[in-house]
Amino acid sequence: MSWFQTVKGCFYVAITAVILYQLIRYYVAALQASKENLQSNQERLRAIIETNAEGILVFDRQGYITLANRAAEKHLGLRRSQIIGRPYRDPIWQLHRLDPPGFPVNELPFCPVMESRKGLCDMEYAIAHSNGTQLFLSINAAPLLDPTRKIDGVVLSISDITHRKETEAIARARDIAEARNRAKSEFLAHMSHEIRTPLNSILGLSQMLQREIFGTLNPKQKEYVSRIKTSGDHLLELINDILDLSKIEAGKEELQLKEVPVAELCHYCLKIIQERASERGLQLTTHIDPQAKICIADERRLKQMLLNLLSNAIKFTPKGTVSLIVAKKPEGIEFTVADTGIGVSPEQLPLVFEAFRQIENELNQKTKGTGLGLALTRDFAHLHGGELSAQSTPGQGSEFTIYLPDLPPGYTPTSANDSLSLPETSPVCPSKRRILIVDYDESNTILLRDYLDAMGHRVKIIGYGSDFLDRVYSFNPHLILLDLQLANPVTGLELVSQLRQEEPLQSLPVVVVTAMAMSGDRDRCLAAGATDYLSKPFQLEELDKLLLHYTQS
């Protein structure tokens, strides 16, 4: 071999060695870069897992936990050292499926993924957290696959859905409460009508007998009629109190706020209660602060509150005095009813404000009551933005004080007066008028017909809505007394609507006389075109006022 060939061979060897060296360097550098990149990716993945708001658990194919992040610790209420290495069957989880489980509750969704081959699994659980609270978790499970596409483990994603579940529970509770309120309102409206209709006849006919319109009664008959009337009034009071309480509980009680003359209102209440106080030999006294001239309140409800307190004071005062004291305060007004009665012990005093609760005592056995008066009075005071307070000493007496602010919530000053101003007296209208009664209830029509006949009016009765307009034109009444519920599918409000579409009849007074006395019934009748509204059972004095107003020349 020549030296040239030898040199040439060495040159090739050297070149090959250099190339191999460079290749080795390249692969070593690439391997190092790949290792660093893998480590970087692992760090990124670890950071992503640790900062994820979802709890993450990883199980190997034997069902042991190999990884858990910070959120998993938080959701499960366990430290990571208590989680890693735990099997899926461990009772430490204390999980409870929110729907019927298809596997033991402590197994987590491991078996469904490993055995079903469906891949994904989504379930909801309740868990008793270590801090004593209950959490709701949504757990999603998915398989981990090896290179041969076989399931090599399971990964779980855990979400805290407590807020969503609580919101859903609140919504369900609200829906249930609203459904119950609707059912209660419908039941009360139905029962109110069914009770008020016969009660109207009981009270109305007993009042006619008391007035001796159709003949003189002997003493025993007068006593019986008086007891019938008193019992009917007590039943009506109970019905009204229950309806008022239900409206307040349902949030449907709306106050008609206006300026109320304090002295006039107080004297009215004392006048109403005077006879009852005289029967028990009690002295009624009053003191009204000269500065307490006007009170912003719902006049009807304020009268009801004062009458409740005065009635209670008279009921539980065997002898002595019942006083109504009104005092002007810097930002409101106080109405105090004080008595010298039996009093209430400090332990029992809070109980008197509970609905249907009556404190046991000797006087309770002798007097009637619903146990709702003080509860309603307190609720009405709260609706006005005020308060009802009490102080009492056994054997010495009690004081109940209603405080009302000068400006109740929701008050808007207005000069309009929606209430009909009618005189306190009930004179009989001397002129005969034509009055049309539209009512199917025989007892009610007898009451109205006989009373109106006795007053000198000409009366016609329609018990159904057929040919209503023809009958109105034919009789040409000065006033229509109309019930809402008739004997055929046509309602009283539909008849009013028909009437108001006839131009000659648009100004004809139509008074709805009905046992429907729930919240909004009056406004519904007036909106339909009725001129006025009278709820059953009514006092004859109320009917007298309406007749005087709508049948006068």
Which tags fit this structure?
14 helices, six-stranded antiparallel sheet, 553 residues, elongated
Protein described:
This protein has 553 residues and is an alpha/beta fold. Helices cover 44% and strands 21% of the residues. It has 14 helices and 18 strands. Strands 2-1-6-5-4-3 form a six-stranded antiparallel β-sheet. A hairpin with a 5-residue loop joins β4 and β5. α6 packs across α9 and α7 packs parallel to α8. The chain is elongated. About 3% of the residues have low confidence.
Topology:
Elements: H1 3-51, E1 55-60, E2 65-68, H2 70-76, H3 80-83, E3 95-97, H4 111-116, E4 121-128, E5 134-145, E6 151-160, H5 162-210, H6 219-249, E7 257-261, H7 262-279, E8 283-288, E9 294-298, H8 299-315, E10 321-329, E11 332-339, H9 373-383, E12 387-393, E13 397-405, E14 434-438, H10 442-454, E15 458-462, H11 468-475, E16 479-482, H12 492-500, E17 510-514, H13 521-528, E18 532-535, H14 540-550
Parallel strand pairs: 8-10, 14-15, 14-16, 16-17, 17-18
Antiparallel strand pairs: 1-2, 1-6, 3-4, 4-5, 5-6, 7-9, 10-11, 11-13, 12-13
Helix pairs in contact: 5-6, 5-10, 6-9, 7-8, 8-9
Radius of gyration: 42 Å
Helix content: 40-55%
Structural class assignment = alpha/beta
Tell how many strands the DSSP assignment holds.
18
The largest sheet is: 6 strands, antiparallel
Total count of helical runs of at least 4 residues: 14
**Whole-number average pLDDT?**
80
Taken from the alpha-carbon principal axes, the silhouette is elongated
The parts where pLDDT drops under 50 for at least 5 residues are 415-430
The separation of the N and C termini measures 154 Å
Give the neighbour order of strands across the main sheet: 2-1-6-5-4-3
Strand content: 15-25%
